[in-house]
Design brief:
The complex is a heterodimer of chains A (329) and B (330). Chain A is an alpha/beta fold and 329 residues long. Helix content of chain A is 31%, strand content 24%. In chain A, the strands form two sheets. In chain A, strands 6-7-8-3-9-10-12-11 form an eight-stranded mixed sheet, with helices on both faces. Chain A has a four-stranded antiparallel sheet with strand order 2-1-4-5, with helices on one face. Chain A is globular, with a radius of gyration of 21 Å. Chain B has 330 residues and is of the alpha/beta class. Chain B folds into two domains: 4-98 and 181-196 and 213-269 and 277-323, 3-Layer(aba) Sandwich (Rossmann fold), CATH 3.40.50.300; 110-178, no CATH class. Chain B has twelve helices and twelve strands. Chain B has helices at 21-25, 59-66, 89-96, 116-126, 133-146, 152-155, 165-177, 195-211, 223-229, 247-252, 257-265, 305-309; strands at residues 4-16, 32-44, 48-52, 74-79, 82-83, 99-102, 183-187, 215-220, 232-237, 240-246, 315-316, 322-323. In chain B, a hairpin with a 2-residue loop joins strand 9 and strand 10. In chain B, helix 4 packs parallel to helix 7 (165-177) and helix 5 crosses helix 7. Chain B is globular. Classes of the chains: A alpha/beta (329), B alpha/beta (330). At the A-B interface, helix 6, helix 7, helix 8 and helix 9 of A face helix 7, helix 8, helix 9, helix 10 and helix 11 of B.
Chain lengths: 329, 330
Amino acid sequence: MMALLEVNNLKMYYSVRRGDVKAVDGVSFEIEKGESMGLAGESGCGKSSMATTLLRLLPNNGRIVDGSIKFNGQEILTMPEEQFRKEYRWQKMSIIFQGAMNALNPVLRIGDQIAEAIITHENASKAEAKKRAGDLLEMVGINSARYRNYPHEFSGGMKQRAVIAMALACNPDLIIADEPTTALDVMVQAQVLEAIQDLRKKMGLSMMLISHDLSVIAQTCDKVAIMYAGRIVEYGPAKMVYNAPMHPYAYGLLSSFPDIKAPKSPVQSIPGSPPNLLEPPSGCRFSPRCPLADAKCRTVEPELEHLGGNGHLVACHKAGQLGKVGERA
Amino acid sequence: MSQVVFEAKNLKKYFYLRKTLKDSLQGKPTPIVHAVDGVSFTVNKGEIVGVVGESGCGKTTLGRVLLKLIEPTAGNIVFEGKDITKLTAEQMKLYRRKLQLVFQDPFESMNPRMDIYSIIAEPLRIQGLDKDEAEVEAKILKTLDEVELKPAEEYIYRYPHELSGGQRQRIAIARALVLDPEFIVADEPVSMLDVSIRGEVLNLMLRLSKERDVSFVYITHDLATARHICNRIIVMYLGETVEQCTADELVYSPLHPYTKALISAVLPPKPQEGGVKAILEGEVPNAANPPSGCRLHPRCPIAKEICSKQSPELRDIGNNHLVACHFAKK
């Protein structure tokens, strides 16, 4: 079976004065129809760059160096921009940008902003677009009577819902959500995640959810990819990665999330900080922070390999020896 | 019995907003934001007390009032047995050595043109404790060592931009520590940091409380981390305390519906059956116009008629477990 989205060895670099920042450096993954994948990692690991690359919305200094992105089997990386804009962006894949709820136009009515997305991308009449915008609001749990409200009349959670409605405007197959709940309070976060889950079920949407918060991904995604310094270090079904992480970074990151119901214990951390992507460390990029690293780790870069079975992939020379990290922690 | 270092008694802070022209003509009263509305608690020596709530619940205002960075509207602040509520800025100066604050944002709270030495020496200079230069340097090195920036000599002449977020936040703690304070208010000290380094800063606070008997008030929206480093936790909603007890009791037997909802909204770190379920509907209402009676009643799943009419008192239901709910039972 063909996956809905197939990314292969994707490399995207930003050129800056001092060289290339290797934000996405050889990333491969697949998203099946109806599936949701979480992309997790710390700030600066390249996860948001991944999102802008998929939609070909790179800034001027960003360039795709290598790799391919196939959507339903069709290569979309080399397609002319005009065709991509008309047929793919927003119609087939759309995005909820990080902080988009603060980017709503303050002097336009919420409903009209959603209708605008429809008119821009489809040959819909104004009246039709307005009607659909009202339906979209209802779908994300906002009374369509509030079509004529302005953004300042909406609370944070409602603005985020409106932004989700906007991403759904053209009935996309895939939705990319970049930190959709980061700016929200925990209680509102739970409400918005619940709304996203319901929508996915109803519409059979595929989703890529980007977040630094592993617990958000745990509750919403079937599959997870953990990114570190521009590369995926562990990838597989969420249950397997969460319950039996094999990469020391994935292990460390997962244990940094305290479980509120667990007995009182010190909060775990990973010493050191993520590397500079201008000159990533040689060998395994996590090796300077890794408690298991040896000479091989510092010279030979590990490939993402099938180590766990059932589609559980890990890029680590020491993948079988995690017990030792546990002892240290 | 441990010794009480700090006590807040019925603290209130109201902000008076400006009336619009229309409201003045109609003779409406000045709108008041009840940011902190009658909060009382004590902090023992070497204890970490968590203040938890959503944005807009008044937790940051409370932190500032505790240190008299803003004056309380009513209530008393008692530090080491002395009421410091009415002290003037000049009289407070001596107490400032003992009472310190760590801010949320390690990128904004430091002057980018000052090196680490000057940043940490500044409190000493302000307090007039910088006469002996060798002593100042030794003190700074010792403090850097204490916040685990080792070797301290390597960090002392660097600038903030050369350090990572976690390192900067440790500089912020070092700056608070250099005066040997008894009491530190930490306002969201890890919310700007990456997950993998949050633990370092939190465990540093934990260690300081144990080894140096420094008392902390840890202000946060993150109940999960508060649970693991705090002895006691205060849950705030719209300026009021809704529940106050030990961290263990709070997570294992919460009594207030708001606390229960807050705990259930904390997502488990591993995949679970059933996915996310939100318990409370809606969002925190405007603090300038809070609901009557119990402030939670419009969102509360168990609200009855009495809740909209009568504000529940914060009562002790045994074992120093305080709850403000008409229906709370042990």
